[in-house]
Design goal:
Elements lengths: L1 H25 L3 H5 L9 E2 L4 E5 L4 E8 L3 E9 L8 E6 L5 E4 L8 E5 L4 E8 L16 E11 L6
Antiparallel strand pairs: 1-9, 2-9, 3-8, 4-7, 4-9, 5-6, 5-8
Length: 159
């Protein structure tokens, strides 16, 4: 009898987690389907791109290695429930210095840059805590965010 109760409890927990698990799987390739790739044909998809579930007020970090002689393009895309004021910052992983903050650029969701030397950077993504204009997201619900990283060889300049 006790085994039946245990199995029933486990089954009930799995049923309760099913929506969150299916949502997490739906986010798996969110960046490939929803982030706008560059119009520049030389930019290539970078395998460090990622998608994840976020809730309001959450901050998460993604470590990225960038290489000398490469140009990079970072795009962040979100489901509408999270609004359009998602902040992302690029920081030096050793010093913590902020290299770029999209809050200084009216929350633009795309940024291109040239890497002058190879290093590890941290891409920090923060979802605002306040209500969105649609008010569709309840406090415990989550929505997808995608980070699309693209790269290309830095073009030579001059003759």
């Amino acid at each position: 009898m006790r085994a039946v109760k245990t199995i029933t409890t486990i089954f009930t927990l799995l049923l309760m987690l099913a929506p969150a698990l299916s949502k997490a799987q739906a986010c798996h390739n969110f960046h490939r389907k929803n982030c706008n790739p560059s119009n520049n044909a030389y930019f290539e998809y970078n395998g460090q791109s990622k998608s994840a579930l976020f809730k309001k007020g959450q901050t998460s970090e993604l470590n990225i290695i960038i290489y000398k002689g490469q140009d990079y393009r970072v795009s962040v895309c979100t489901e509408p429930e999270l609004g359009n004021k998602v902040e992302f910052r690029l920081k030096d992983s050793k010093s913590g210095d902020v290299l770029y903050d999209n809050a200084d650029a009216d929350y633009d969701q795309e940024f291109e840059f040239t890497c002058s030397y190879s290093r590890r950077i941290v891409l920090e993504v923060t979802v605002p805590d306040g209500e969105t204009k649609d008010k569709k997201l309840k406090p415990r619900e989550m929505a997808c965010i995608g980070v699309l990283v693209e790269h290309m060889t830095t073009p030579n300049s001059g003759f």
